[in-house]
Design a protein that fits this description.
CATH class of the largest domain: Alpha Beta
CATH superfamily of the largest domain: Zn peptidases
Strand content: 25-35%
Bound molecules: zinc ion
Strand order of the largest sheet: 1-8-7-9-6-4-5-3-2
Radius of gyration: 21 Å
Shape: globular
Number of strands: 17
Number of helices: 8
Oligomer: single chain
Mean pLDDT: 91
């Protein structure tokens, strides 16, 4: 529900990085797929106008539950949070993953699934699709902090679901729920036919001001993670008019993502899949998952079975074969990539090979084992687990 305000962004300077690049985070980011994003968006669209309290709204909530179940979350982790505003009944859906070191401190990643006047594929099927991918990929990844994946309803009527959650869950818990930060994703679909390459990182610039400095810090970290784990550019802007605001008013620390090419279609029947940019959502998902791992302090060890060696292949580059015994080939698929570097590190993180603009790399002298190949070109950074097997 953000279309009223005009936004003026400030280009952020990315020279000061308070985060270092973590190969395991990139590996998980690389397991986000465009086809999953597209499926989430089109399925979300198929439930039609999901006005808070409507049958479509209820059906969309049920769809969300089946998604989390399919990712392997236990029934006890998936909690419906019902609320009533006037004569309207609806539910938030809250999925909790417990942290290893700080089980009672929560990183909240949230977005609303209710829509108004249209299917809301951008506002906010885009945010929901990203939260689903993040939940799928992090299901078995240890994080030091607990994570709540929250799908809010009632947003379009005035942040009703999130306000209910703050009043009746956060503040009604004993002791009050300890929230590390709230990361809201709302309307990150961009515009079809345009170059959508920049994401707005939103920080708290409103009252109460006691939490503003902390928000500025984590919003800069969000921008840094965006640069580390995606190809997107960032701007910093003010947080307003979405589900982080009730948390902000509760003196929690907030940040958020919002599109920089602001679409005029939200809150109309034209907020459809074809009018937005699914590739932008895919790129925002990478930035979001990189940042979420940073915020929740995810394991830096690559363990999951979906992270074992295979060919790396995306729109920009293909790195193959994997496993390999003698050579690694680097096939550049994006003609905008002129120069690139490739670094191979061993399992202990020691650099054992460095090359520039080479398409065929001899690894025949290295022992059988697990390595990490990092490809960089300008803003693009990709790290892949590579198996050398004799
Ligand atoms: Zn929205």
């Amino acid at each position: 529900m953000k279309k009223i305000l005009l936004f003026v962004g400030i280009i952020s300077f990315q020279s000061i990085f308070s985060q270092s690049f973590i190969p395991a985070y990139q590996s998980r980011v690389n397991s986000i797929t465009q086809s999953n994003i597209n499926s989430h968006l089109t399925e979300f669209s198929s439930y039609g106008v999901k006005t808070t309290g409507s049958t479509n709204n209820t059906n969309a909530l049920a769809w969300l539950k089946t998604k989390y179940v399919s990712f392997g979350y236990a029934a006890s982790q998936i909690v419906e949070d019902p609320f009533t505003v006037g004569t309207t009944n609806s539910k938030n859906l809250v999925v909790t993953k417990i942290g290893s070191l700080y089980p009672n401190t929560f990183v909240i990643i949230c977005g609303h699934f209710d829509t108004i006047a249209g299917p809301g594929v951008n506002d906010n099927g885009s945010g929901i699709s990203i939260i689903l991918e993040a939940a799928r990929i992090l299901k078995d990844v240890p994080t030091e902090y607990s994570i709540k994946f929250i799908n809010f309803s009632g947003e379009e009527q005035g942040l009703n679901g999130s306000q209910h959650y703050v009043n009746n869950i956060v503040n009604a818990s004993t002791p009050k729920m300890d929230i590390r930060l709230v990361f809201n994703i709302d309307q990150v679909g961009g515009k079809a036919g345009q170059i959508n390459n920049t994401i707005v990182c939103e920080r708290d610039e409103s009252t109460p001001t006691t939490n503003n400095a902390a928000s500025a810090t984590i919003t800069q970290e969000l921008a840094n993670c965006t640069s580390l784990y995606s190809t997107l550019l960032t701007t910093i802007g003010p947080a307003y008019s979405s589900d982080y605001i009730p948390f902000e008013n509760n003196n929690e620390v907030i940040t958020g993502f919002y599109e920089s090419n602001v679409s005029s279609f939200p809150h109309t029947a034209n907020d459809t899949y074809t009018n937005m940019d699914p590739v932008f959502v895919f790129n925002v998902a990478k930035a979001a998952l990189g940042a979420l791992q940073h915020f929740a302090v995810a394991s830096t060890t690559i363990l999951a079975t979906n992270e074992t060696g295979n060919d790396f292949d995306n729109d920009a580059v293909r790195i193959f074969p994997n496993p390999t015994k003698d050579f690694i080939n680097i096939e550049i698929k994006n003609r905008n990539i002129i120069t690139y570097n490739f670094v191979l590190t061993d399992a202990a993180g020691r650099m054992i090979l460095q090359s520039k603009n080479e398409s065929k790399i001899d690894v025949s002298s290295f022992a059988t084992g697990t390595y990490f190949g990092t490809f960089t070109s300008g803003e693009i950074k990709l790290t892949k687990k590579i198996i050398i097997s004799k």
